[in-house]
């Protein structure tokens, strides 16, 4: 075991997969010689060569389309999209094909591939680099969607995604790529897709978050405890499928839920979570579910990004509201 | 350099034979403008890199080395023409009339930096690669349908030629014979990826024939050749003869952005060759001096003036009052729907109802 950052966890996951499975290839823009613009693929091109770690032309539809074709013909491609905000040229390939090739071919071609993309804001990136559009993919039947928030989960979820027989969109919280280090197990190890992680045990309110918002939720929970409110924090990790059991068990215990996400509110994943809680735990609830999300405006340029993203103050206010309903 | 169709001003500052006759035909004021704009652009660019290092602006995309391609092409356009730039076209933008302080605001993460003064037809930088090409084509199409004189120009890099949007835009432009110019600055790299990884054919310009539009490959560090190629393309477009794909062969001296480290993927001797031997400004300066149009004193004076211009822009940008948080909601819709009004009130602390 050794201490690694989240992005090193991803790097380790890719290295392990390339080492242990000869059918794995990594492809994308700047993933080779440059080691990725965030260094997620650092050292892999040198170690595994140009046929396994492939710098492609600048074309997202081409990258994902190629990955689907490779998957059809027996490989396990891991495609990188440089930023989630640039995934749209590949949207057709993902939504129309990767997601439903299994159904359309009645199981003959399952499109087993992974599409990695850094998402979210908070790093003063240039304009149009900070989207969180996970809901578009969660909404697409046939896709799995995951988002780690720790170095160890980053590696374990990636390896699960690579072994998974279905197409997986693997979202990387770029703001916390290097936020902290953690022990990451060596070798092939998996964190199951579809299982949330209980980050903190609590009695009064369940805070539900993923990716970049997990540390934000943890901080809110710490501060709430100073005010005498005990928060349980769930890191979903898997956005599709959802870990219904973990969510329902937690909210049945606390009777209250605050969902925190960076994406805009309207038809965001928070809406689905609130609906599930309503359907499955209505009689246990002490208060309506609250959502603290990005506002329903285009993700702004960075001068205003802190005002767009869920702030501590807004989360505190939501916790207060569910406690005093 | 690889073969180009047009080079008028050689790296040492000597005119080729064709270049000489072109030079004779260029008005003196324009000769000096080529030089002055290039120096101003470089002065702005170098200062911006420093501002980023000092934390006064965010990530910045430097253009040093590409001044001739930008200045030569932009000076061939008129006020009525539409410009669809990428994120590296600060030189084009300033010539088109974008104040320096607004360009700086953009890199400070301020949306005001996207907005040109009244009458300046420059769109905000297109960050998602190649997305400006179909739109420039569409704007040109509208000019044609409205029987207007305007042409549209899309500026983009060599990497952009790999996107589907490139194909779609050029194809429409060919089919409908549109007054659009596709101006590619081939600076040899798309971040770390060399052009040989974008294309199995060695040039961008030769793709034009696949769309039955005109293609020309110029020495992009030769401002005179770039300007003449652009002028021809504009004339053809205005006459109704259709689109041109111009490939200006150039080099970015620095990294892709201030967040990139080009030493990871470029050979130092290659960089050295472009920086020392092929600089666009020094060859123009040498020519103007040899022609007796520029003295060492003029050079000093102009450099100082540029510095002062940039100083003032930095001051203005830094003094520009910061927008309030609820500016997030400005211009999202012509009229804000009730839910967004509630969200705005929540943000401004005027109500807490929606959370
Ligand atoms: C659709 C899309 N994919 C990826 C990116 C990330 N990206 C930004 S610039 C760049 C390289 C662009 O190279 P080129 O078109 O040659 O222009 P240059 O930057 O060299 O001027 C990449 C891959 C993006 N902005 N948009």
From TrEMBL, chain A:
Coiled coil: none annotated. GO terms for molecular function: oxidoreductase activity. Its cofactor is thiamine diphosphate. Residues 4-179 form the Transketolase-like pyrimidine-binding domain. SMART domains: Transket_pyr. It comes from the Bacteria. Keywords: Oxidoreductase, Pyruvate, Thiamine pyrophosphate. This is Pyruvate dehydrogenase E1 component beta subunit. It comes from Melghirimyces profundicolus.
UniProtKB/TrEMBL annotation, chain B:
Pfam families: E1_dh. Keywords: Oxidoreductase, Pyruvate, Thiamine pyrophosphate. Its cofactor is thiamine diphosphate. It catalyses: N(6)-[(R)-lipoyl]-L-lysyl-[protein] + pyruvate + H(+) = N(6)-[(R)-S(8)-acetyldihydrolipoyl]-L-lysyl-[protein] + CO2. Coiled coil: none annotated. Residues 35-324 form the Dehydrogenase E1 component domain. Gene3D superfamilies: 3.40.50.970. SUPFAM superfamilies: Thiamin diphosphate-binding fold (THDP-binding). One of its GO terms (biological process) is branched-chain amino acid catabolic process. One of its GO terms (molecular function) is pyruvate dehydrogenase (acetyl-transferring) activity. Its EC number is 1.2.4.1. Heterodimer of an alpha and a beta chain. The pyruvate dehydrogenase complex catalyzes the overall conversion of pyruvate to acetyl-CoA and CO(2). It contains multiple copies of three enzymatic components: pyruvate dehydrogenase (E1), dihydrolipoamide acetyltransferase (E2) and lipoamide dehydrogenase (E3). This is Pyruvate dehydrogenase E1 component subunit alpha.
């Amino acid at each position: 075991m050794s201490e690694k950052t989240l992005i090193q966890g991803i790097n380790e996951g890719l290295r392990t997969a390339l080492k242990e499975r000869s059918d794995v290839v990594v492809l994308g823009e700047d993933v080779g010689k440059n080691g990725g613009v965030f260094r997620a693929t650092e050292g892999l091109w040198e170690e595994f060569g140009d046929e396994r770690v492939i710098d492609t032309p600048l074309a997202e539809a081409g990258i994902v389309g190629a990955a689907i074709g490779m998957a059809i013909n027996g490989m396990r491609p891991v495609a990188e999209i440089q930023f989630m905000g640039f995934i749209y040229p590949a949207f057709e390939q993902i939504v129309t094909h990767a997601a439903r090739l299994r159904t359309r071919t009645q199981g003959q071609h399952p499109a087993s591939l992974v599409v990695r993309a850094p998402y979210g804001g908070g790093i003063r990136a240039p304009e149009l680099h900070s989207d969180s559009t996970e809901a578009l993919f969660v909404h697409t039947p046939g896709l799995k969607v995951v988002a780690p928030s720790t170095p160890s989960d980053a590696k374990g979820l990636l390896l699960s995604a690579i072994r998974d027989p279905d197409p997986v969109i693997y979202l990387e919280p770029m703001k916390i790529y290097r936020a902290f280090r953690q022990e990451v197990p060596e070798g092939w190890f998996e964190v199951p897709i579809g299982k949330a992680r209980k980050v903190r045990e609590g009695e009064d309110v369940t805070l539900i978050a993923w990716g970049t918002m997990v540390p934000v939720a943890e901080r809110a929970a710490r501060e709430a405890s100073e005010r005498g409110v005990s928060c349980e924090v769930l890191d979903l990790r898997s956005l599709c499928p959802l870990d219904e059991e973990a969510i329902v068990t937690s909210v049945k215990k606390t009777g209250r839920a605050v969902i925190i996400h960076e994406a805009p509110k309207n038809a965001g994943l928070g809406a689905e979570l609130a609906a599930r809680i309503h359907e499955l735990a209505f009689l246990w609830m002490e208060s309506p579910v609250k959502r603290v999300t990005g506002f329903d405006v285009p993700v702004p340029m960075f001068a205003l990004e802190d005002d767009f993203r869920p702030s501590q103050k807004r989360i505190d206010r939501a916790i207060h509201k569910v406690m005093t309903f | 350099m690889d073969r180009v169709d047009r080079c008028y001003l050689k790296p040492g500052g000597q005119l080729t034979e064709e270049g000489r006759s072109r030079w004779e035909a260029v008005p003196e004021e324009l000769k000096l403008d080529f030089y002055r704009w290039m120096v101003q652009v470089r002065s702005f660019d170098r200062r911006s890199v420093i501002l980023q290092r000092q934390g006064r602006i965010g990530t910045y995309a430097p253009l040093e080395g590409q001044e001739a391609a930008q200045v030569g092409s932009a000076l061939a356009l008129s006020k009525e023409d539409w410009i669809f730039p990428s994120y590296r076209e600060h030189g084009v933008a300033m010539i088109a009339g974008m104040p320096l302080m607004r360009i700086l605001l953009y890199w400070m993460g301020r949306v005001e930096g996207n907005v040109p003064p009244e009458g300046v037809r420059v769109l905000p930088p297109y960050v998602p690669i190649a997305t400006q090409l179909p739109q420039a084509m569409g704007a040109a199409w509208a000019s044609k349908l409205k029987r207007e004189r305007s042409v549209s120009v899309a500026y983009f890099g060599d990497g952009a030629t790999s996107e589907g949007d490139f194909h779609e835009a050029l194809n429409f432009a060919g089919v409908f014979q549109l007054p659009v110019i596709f101006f590619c600055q081939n600076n040899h790299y798309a971040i770390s990826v060399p052009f040989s990884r974008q294309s199995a054919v060695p040039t961008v310009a030769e793709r034009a024939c696949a769309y039955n539009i005109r293609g020309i490959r110029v020495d992009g560090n030769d401002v005179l050749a770039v300007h003449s190629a652009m002028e021809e393309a504009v004339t053809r477009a205005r006459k109704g003869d259709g689109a041109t794909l111009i490939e200006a062969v150039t080099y970015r001296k620095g990294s892709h952005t201030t967040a990139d480290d080009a030493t990871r993927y470029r050979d130092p001797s290659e960089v050295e060759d472009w920086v020392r031997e092929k600089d666009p400004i020094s060859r123009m300066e040498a020519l103007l001096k040899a022609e007796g149009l520029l003295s060492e004193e003029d050079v000093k004076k102009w450099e100082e003036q540029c510095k002062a211009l940039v100083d003032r822009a930095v001051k203005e940008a830094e003094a520009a009052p910061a927008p309030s948080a609820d500016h997030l909601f400005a211009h999202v819709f012509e009229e804000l729907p009730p839910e967004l009004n509630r969200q705005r009130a929540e943000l401004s602390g005027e109500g807490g109802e929606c959370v």
